[in-house]
Amino acid sequence: MMGLMPSEETRTLTSTTLTDPAAQDTAEADASPTRAWRRRLLVVAIVLAALNLRPAITSLGALLEEVRDGLGMSGSVAGLLTSVPPLCFAVFGVTAPRLARRFGAGAVVCAGMAAITAGLLIRPYAGGTPGFLAASALALMGIAVSNVLMPVIVKRWFPDRVGSMTGLYSMALACGTAVAAAATVPLTDALGGDWQPGLTVWAALAAAAVLPWLPFVRNGERTRAARGASARGDAEREAAGRGASARDAAEQGAAAREAADRDASARGASAETETETGAGAAGAAGAERPALRITRSRTAWALAVFFGLQATAAYITMGWVAQIFRDAGVAAGTAGVLLAVIMAMGIPLAFVIPRVATRLPSQGPIVLVLGVCGLAGYAGLYFAPAGGAWLWALLLGVSNCAFPLALTMVGMRARTGSGVAQLSAFAQSTGYLISIPGPLLVGVLYQHSGGWGLPIALMAALMVPQMLVGVLAGRDRTVEDEAAAR
Predict the structure, then answer these.
(1) How many CB atoms lie within 10 A of CB 262?
(2) Residue 34 pLDDT grade (very low, low, confident, very high; cuts 50, 70, 90)
(3) Is 193 helix (H, G, I), strand (E, B) or coil?
(4) Which pTM does this prediction carry?
(5) How far is it, in rounded angstroms, from Cα 96 to Cα 218?
(6) DSSP letters of 62-74?
């Protein structure tokens, strides 16, 4: 995400004098062993959360044929089912910054893990397609808010290690995706061969992810209230002490709030401050700051379209590629493993790509390499899906790593934490809206054409504009500068 340049927060920390008791308490806590323990706990929490951001989707892809038979779904309805993830991500993801400002980012992610747990427990036994879709939407709501807030949390807690932490988070996400794809069919067989227990078992992993987020829920509200009161008190004392005019008082209050915000930013990695403010600026000072007009930025739009097209490819892959292999004569267990290979390629590459991307002035070359691999993989699926299945899986796995690249560019295209939050919410919500028709259209084409030729041609055709907008999104510029210039 962000480059490995020294952060403004780090420089400010060494020169800021803390005059507010609450701020002093926070700074002392930041320097204590408790703070180091909380940072280590947060790493565990991030990894566990990331592990749970895709099993709800890839476990279903591995058993899609059995679920269709069990619920009596047509190809078009199954296409609708595979379009539910991006729909939920678009609808619920946009609410994440507002929820984080009100409740704290830790509380929102914790609630998201609980929603995933509940949705995965309910959906296999909801009784019919509508109940299955509703329970899936509950789980995907939790995934959506966590998707948006993860880059923000990484930026604020680890401002000097954004690339490494993004890589770790992306690796965990890819690992959870691959394990669910590979293990769902064997687990289903071990549990008696019924698809319902095979899908339910992933709720246990989500339940485990709730626990490490609980400490960050308890402290968020107290800290935000103390910091907001501190900022307001500073402004009032400054204005009253100098007997300024109404205009001067307003200016001094704004300056005091800005100083309070700099104090908070200097402590960017602390649990009590930056993370719990989530997607916005800190405390009362952040509420005063004018919002970035993100829609004025061409780079923001390019990144949103890139995010949408890579999400289209990813959800088509997760929802339909195992079925493509099965229809070509590959056994169900092997098809699940092939899907796992596609997802597993993201484990090493999700760590390497962000680190390489942060060292390049433009990420366009990486976009092009990933796109060419995708085109080659689709060509293989079209001409010889079973004959070269393992090679096509490897190529599609490389192409699928456009997701960690998109996350990295979200951080690199904004200078500030609030800018990253707004860009993350805009790019992901808009992008997921763009990706909704893709999986549905694949299902419709498959049902009406009776084969996979047209759907695969569509997948390859969408890769071309993905490469073009990815090059535009990878240019070295920031959304703050573009929005201010228009």
Answers:
(1) 18
(2) low
(3) coil
(4) 0.66
(5) 19
(6) HTHHHHHHHHT--
